[in-house]
Design a protein that fits this description.
It contains eight helices and seven strands. It is α/β, with parallel strands linked by helices. Strands 3-2-1-4-5-6-7 form a seven-stranded parallel beta sheet, with helices on both faces. Helix 1 packs parallel to helix 2. The chain is globular, with a radius of gyration of 17 Å. The termini are far apart. The chain binds nicotinamide-adenine-dinucleotide (NAD).
Protein backbone atom coordinates (compact mmCIF):
# COMPACT_ATOMS: atom_id res chain seq x y z
CA UNK A 1 0.00 0.00 0.00
CA UNK A 2 1.45 3.37 -1.01
CA UNK A 3 1.84 6.20 1.52
CA UNK A 4 -0.92 8.77 1.38
CA UNK A 5 -0.37 12.52 1.22
CA UNK A 6 -3.07 15.10 1.89
CA UNK A 7 -2.28 18.38 0.10
CA UNK A 8 -4.34 21.57 0.46
CA UNK A 9 -4.78 24.01 -2.40
CA UNK A 10 -3.89 21.40 -5.02
CA UNK A 11 -5.87 22.70 -7.99
CA UNK A 12 -3.09 24.81 -9.40
CA UNK A 13 0.19 26.59 -8.74
CA UNK A 14 2.47 25.38 -5.98
CA UNK A 15 -0.12 22.90 -4.71
CA UNK A 16 -0.23 21.16 -8.07
CA UNK A 17 3.58 21.14 -8.18
CA UNK A 18 3.59 19.41 -4.80
CA UNK A 19 0.94 16.85 -5.78
CA UNK A 20 2.87 15.91 -8.91
CA UNK A 21 6.26 15.70 -7.21
CA UNK A 22 4.76 13.45 -4.53
CA UNK A 23 3.10 11.30 -7.18
CA UNK A 24 6.47 10.92 -8.84
CA UNK A 25 8.00 9.84 -5.51
CA UNK A 26 5.45 7.06 -4.99
CA UNK A 27 2.71 8.72 -2.94
CA UNK A 28 -1.01 8.45 -3.48
CA UNK A 29 -2.61 11.84 -3.01
CA UNK A 30 -5.82 13.41 -1.77
CA UNK A 31 -5.87 17.09 -2.63
CA UNK A 32 -8.19 19.76 -1.32
CA UNK A 33 -9.41 22.91 -3.01
CA UNK A 34 -12.39 25.23 -2.86
CA UNK A 35 -14.27 23.74 -5.82
CA UNK A 36 -13.83 21.04 -8.44
CA UNK A 37 -12.84 22.71 -11.70
CA UNK A 38 -10.97 21.95 -14.92
CA UNK A 39 -7.82 22.70 -12.93
CA UNK A 40 -8.67 19.90 -10.48
CA UNK A 41 -9.03 17.49 -13.38
CA UNK A 42 -5.61 18.50 -14.73
CA UNK A 43 -3.96 17.93 -11.36
CA UNK A 44 -5.69 14.57 -10.93
CA UNK A 45 -4.95 13.33 -14.45
CA UNK A 46 -1.30 14.36 -14.34
CA UNK A 47 -0.87 12.70 -10.94
CA UNK A 48 -2.49 9.53 -12.25
CA UNK A 49 -0.21 9.57 -15.29
CA UNK A 50 2.68 9.53 -12.82
CA UNK A 51 1.26 6.40 -11.22
CA UNK A 52 -0.58 7.85 -8.22
CA UNK A 53 -4.14 7.28 -7.16
CA UNK A 54 -5.41 10.84 -6.82
CA UNK A 55 -8.63 12.08 -5.24
CA UNK A 56 -10.09 15.56 -5.14
CA UNK A 57 -11.76 16.87 -1.97
CA UNK A 58 -13.87 20.04 -2.20
CA UNK A 59 -13.50 22.09 0.96
CA UNK A 60 -12.65 25.53 2.29
CA UNK A 61 -9.95 25.16 4.91
CA UNK A 62 -11.16 28.38 6.55
CA UNK A 63 -14.36 26.51 7.49
CA UNK A 64 -13.34 24.50 10.52
CA UNK A 65 -16.53 22.45 10.28
CA UNK A 66 -15.15 20.81 7.14
CA UNK A 67 -11.88 19.60 8.62
CA UNK A 68 -13.01 16.21 9.88
CA UNK A 69 -14.56 15.52 6.46
CA UNK A 70 -11.24 16.40 4.79
CA UNK A 71 -9.33 13.99 7.02
CA UNK A 72 -12.03 11.33 6.55
CA UNK A 73 -11.70 11.71 2.77
CA UNK A 74 -7.95 11.15 2.96
CA UNK A 75 -8.42 7.98 4.98
CA UNK A 76 -11.22 6.82 2.68
CA UNK A 77 -8.92 7.27 -0.30
CA UNK A 78 -5.73 5.76 1.06
CA UNK A 79 -6.64 3.88 4.23
CA UNK A 80 -3.90 5.83 6.01
CA UNK A 81 -2.40 9.30 6.28
CA UNK A 82 1.36 9.73 6.11
CA UNK A 83 1.84 13.34 5.13
CA UNK A 84 -0.12 16.56 5.44
CA UNK A 85 1.03 19.43 3.24
CA UNK A 86 -0.41 22.77 4.35
CA UNK A 87 -0.18 24.69 1.10
CA UNK A 88 -3.51 26.48 0.62
CA UNK A 89 -3.18 30.17 1.24
CA UNK A 90 -4.27 33.53 -0.06
CA UNK A 91 -2.57 36.83 -0.62
CA UNK A 92 -4.15 40.18 0.21
CA UNK A 93 -7.04 41.18 -2.04
CA UNK A 94 -5.28 44.47 -2.73
CA UNK A 95 -1.72 45.47 -1.93
CA UNK A 96 -1.62 48.68 0.09
CA UNK A 97 -0.07 50.57 2.96
CA UNK A 98 -0.02 48.87 6.35
CA UNK A 99 -1.75 51.99 7.67
CA UNK A 100 -4.73 51.25 5.41
CA UNK A 101 -5.22 47.53 6.22
CA UNK A 102 -8.87 46.87 7.05
CA UNK A 103 -10.07 44.48 9.76
CA UNK A 104 -11.93 42.55 7.03
CA UNK A 105 -8.78 41.95 5.01
CA UNK A 106 -6.81 41.09 8.13
CA UNK A 107 -9.43 38.58 9.28
CA UNK A 108 -9.80 36.95 5.84
CA UNK A 109 -6.08 36.38 5.37
CA UNK A 110 -5.70 35.07 8.91
CA UNK A 111 -8.81 32.86 8.58
CA UNK A 112 -7.32 30.94 5.66
CA UNK A 113 -3.56 31.12 6.10
CA UNK A 114 -3.29 30.78 9.87
CA UNK A 115 -6.55 29.70 11.49
CA UNK A 116 -7.48 27.21 8.76
CA UNK A 117 -3.99 25.75 8.65
CA UNK A 118 -3.71 25.57 12.44
CA UNK A 119 -6.98 23.71 12.95
CA UNK A 120 -6.58 21.40 9.97
CA UNK A 121 -3.16 20.41 11.30
CA UNK A 122 -4.77 19.81 14.68
CA UNK A 123 -7.54 17.67 13.16
CA UNK A 124 -5.09 15.60 11.12
CA UNK A 125 -2.66 15.11 14.01
CA UNK A 126 -5.44 14.10 16.41
CA UNK A 127 -6.77 11.55 13.95
CA UNK A 128 -3.38 10.06 13.25
CA UNK A 129 -2.48 9.83 16.94
CA UNK A 130 -5.75 8.00 17.56
CA UNK A 131 -5.26 5.68 14.60
CA UNK A 132 -5.22 2.19 16.08
CA UNK A 133 -3.72 0.68 12.94
CA UNK A 134 -0.41 2.29 13.79
CA UNK A 135 0.12 3.99 10.47
CA UNK A 136 1.09 7.56 11.05
CA UNK A 137 2.22 10.45 8.93
CA UNK A 138 5.90 10.92 8.79
CA UNK A 139 5.44 14.61 8.52
CA UNK A 140 3.49 17.80 8.32
CA UNK A 141 4.99 20.21 5.80
CA UNK A 142 3.77 23.80 5.95
CA UNK A 143 4.30 26.17 3.05
CA UNK A 144 4.88 29.57 4.58
CA UNK A 145 6.74 32.20 2.56
CA UNK A 146 9.88 34.27 2.34
CA UNK A 147 7.51 36.76 3.99
CA UNK A 148 7.68 34.74 7.20
CA UNK A 149 10.87 36.72 7.79
CA UNK A 150 11.03 39.38 5.03
CA UNK A 151 8.73 42.34 5.67
CA UNK A 152 6.53 43.79 2.93
CA UNK A 153 4.84 47.01 4.02
CA UNK A 154 2.17 46.59 1.34
CA UNK A 155 1.08 43.09 2.51
CA UNK A 156 1.25 43.32 6.29
CA UNK A 157 -1.50 40.84 7.11
CA UNK A 158 -0.01 38.25 4.74
CA UNK A 159 3.44 38.61 6.34
CA UNK A 160 1.94 38.27 9.82
CA UNK A 161 0.06 35.12 8.88
CA UNK A 162 3.20 33.53 7.47
CA UNK A 163 5.39 34.52 10.41
CA UNK A 164 2.87 32.86 12.72
CA UNK A 165 2.93 29.68 10.62
CA UNK A 166 6.65 29.55 11.18
CA UNK A 167 6.01 29.30 14.93
CA UNK A 168 3.28 26.72 14.37
CA UNK A 169 5.80 24.51 12.57
CA UNK A 170 8.07 24.52 15.60
CA UNK A 171 5.24 23.96 18.07
CA UNK A 172 4.03 20.96 16.07
CA UNK A 173 7.59 19.66 15.89
CA UNK A 174 7.78 19.70 19.70
CA UNK A 175 4.36 18.17 20.26
CA UNK A 176 4.62 15.42 17.66
CA UNK A 177 8.25 14.31 17.90
CA UNK A 178 7.46 11.49 20.33
CA UNK A 179 4.93 10.16 17.86
CA UNK A 180 7.57 10.05 15.13
CA UNK A 181 5.99 12.87 13.17
CA UNK A 182 8.25 15.61 11.84
CA UNK A 183 7.13 19.16 11.15
CA UNK A 184 8.88 21.20 8.50
CA UNK A 185 8.46 24.62 6.96
CA UNK A 186 9.15 25.53 3.36
CA UNK A 187 9.63 29.21 2.61
CA UNK A 188 9.12 29.81 -1.10
CA UNK A 189 10.60 32.88 -2.68
CA UNK A 190 9.05 34.35 -5.81
CA UNK A 191 7.27 31.53 -7.60
CA UNK A 192 5.48 31.84 -10.92
CA UNK A 193 1.78 31.18 -10.15
CA UNK A 194 -1.58 32.94 -10.35
CA UNK A 195 -0.83 34.52 -6.98
CA UNK A 196 2.18 36.44 -8.29
CA UNK A 197 0.77 37.14 -11.77
CA UNK A 198 -0.42 40.59 -10.66
CA UNK A 199 3.17 41.57 -9.95
CA UNK A 200 4.84 39.93 -12.96
CA UNK A 201 6.44 43.09 -14.36
CA UNK A 202 7.72 44.19 -10.97
CA UNK A 203 9.30 40.81 -10.23
CA UNK A 204 10.70 40.43 -13.76
CA UNK A 205 12.54 43.68 -13.21
CA UNK A 206 13.69 42.95 -9.65
CA UNK A 207 14.87 39.44 -10.49
CA UNK A 208 16.74 40.80 -13.51
CA UNK A 209 18.44 43.27 -11.19
CA UNK A 210 19.59 40.44 -8.91
CA UNK A 211 16.92 40.42 -6.18
CA UNK A 212 17.67 36.72 -5.77
CA UNK A 213 21.23 35.59 -6.50
CA UNK A 214 19.77 32.90 -8.74
CA UNK A 215 18.27 35.25 -11.32
CA UNK A 216 15.11 33.39 -12.21
CA UNK A 217 11.55 32.91 -11.06
CA UNK A 218 10.90 29.84 -8.98
CA UNK A 219 8.51 27.30 -10.46
CA UNK A 220 5.93 25.18 -8.61
CA UNK A 221 8.10 22.16 -9.32
CA UNK A 222 10.93 23.74 -7.29
CA UNK A 223 8.70 23.66 -4.23
CA UNK A 224 7.23 20.26 -5.10
CA UNK A 225 10.67 18.68 -5.30
CA UNK A 226 11.69 20.11 -1.93
CA UNK A 227 8.52 18.74 -0.30
CA UNK A 228 9.00 15.36 -1.95
CA UNK A 229 12.63 15.17 -0.80
CA UNK A 230 11.53 15.78 2.79
CA UNK A 231 8.61 13.38 2.49
CA UNK A 232 10.81 10.65 1.06
CA UNK A 233 12.33 10.24 4.53
CA UNK A 234 15.89 11.33 3.85
CA UNK A 235 15.97 13.75 6.79
CA UNK A 236 15.17 11.39 9.69
CA UNK A 237 16.85 13.48 12.42
CA UNK A 238 15.50 16.89 11.36
CA UNK A 239 12.35 18.57 12.62
CA UNK A 240 11.09 22.10 13.21
CA UNK A 241 13.38 23.32 10.44
CA UNK A 242 12.68 25.89 7.74
CA UNK A 243 14.01 25.47 4.23
CA UNK A 244 14.24 28.48 1.96
CA UNK A 245 13.39 27.53 -1.60
CA UNK A 246 14.04 30.95 -3.04
CA UNK A 247 17.21 31.04 -5.13
CA UNK A 248 19.01 32.69 -2.23
CA UNK A 249 16.55 35.57 -1.84
CA UNK A 250 16.76 35.44 1.96
CA UNK A 251 20.53 35.93 2.18
CA UNK A 252 21.38 39.28 3.76
CA UNK A 253 23.93 41.13 1.72
CA UNK A 254 26.44 43.83 2.36
P1 LIG B 1 -2.43 30.12 -6.05
O1 LIG B 1 -3.39 31.21 -5.73
O2 LIG B 1 -1.95 29.97 -7.45
O3 LIG B 1 -3.00 28.72 -5.57
C1 LIG B 1 -3.57 28.58 -4.30
C2 LIG B 1 -4.56 27.43 -4.34
O4 LIG B 1 -5.12 27.33 -3.02
C3 LIG B 1 -5.73 27.73 -5.28
O5 LIG B 1 -6.04 26.57 -6.04
C4 LIG B 1 -6.85 28.13 -4.35
O6 LIG B 1 -8.14 27.86 -4.86
C5 LIG B 1 -6.53 27.30 -3.11
N1 LIG B 1 -7.14 27.86 -1.92
C6 LIG B 1 -7.14 29.17 -1.55
N2 LIG B 1 -7.85 29.34 -0.43
C7 LIG B 1 -8.30 28.11 -0.08
C8 LIG B 1 -9.11 27.65 0.98
N3 LIG B 1 -9.61 28.50 1.89
N4 LIG B 1 -9.39 26.33 1.06
C9 LIG B 1 -8.90 25.48 0.13
N5 LIG B 1 -8.14 25.86 -0.90
C10 LIG B 1 -7.85 27.17 -1.01
O7 LIG B 1 -1.21 30.37 -5.06
P2 LIG B 1 0.27 29.73 -5.00
O8 LIG B 1 1.21 30.76 -5.47
O9 LIG B 1 0.27 28.38 -5.63
O10 LIG B 1 0.43 29.64 -3.41
C11 LIG B 1 0.38 28.41 -2.69
C12 LIG B 1 0.96 28.67 -1.31
O11 LIG B 1 2.31 29.13 -1.44
C13 LIG B 1 0.23 29.76 -0.53
O12 LIG B 1 0.17 29.42 0.83
C14 LIG B 1 1.13 30.98 -0.71
O13 LIG B 1 1.00 31.90 0.34
C15 LIG B 1 2.49 30.33 -0.73
N6 LIG B 1 3.53 31.12 -1.36
C16 LIG B 1 3.48 31.47 -2.67
C17 LIG B 1 4.51 32.22 -3.23
C18 LIG B 1 4.54 32.62 -4.68
O14 LIG B 1 5.46 33.35 -5.07
N7 LIG B 1 3.61 32.19 -5.52
C19 LIG B 1 5.58 32.64 -2.44
C20 LIG B 1 5.60 32.28 -1.09
C21 LIG B 1 4.57 31.52 -0.57
Amino acid sequence: MKPLALVTGGNRGIGRGIVLALAQRGFDVAFVDLAETDDSAVTRQEAERLGARAAFVAADIADLGQHSRIVDAAYAHGGRLDLLVNNAGISVARRGDVLDVTPESFDRVMAVNLRGTFFLSQAAARRVLADASGTQPRAIVTISSANAVMASVDRAEYCLSKAALSMLVRILALRLADAGIASWEIRPGIIRTEMTRVATEKYDRLIGEGLSPMRRWGEPDDIGRAVAALAAGDFPFVTGEAIHVDGGLHIRRL
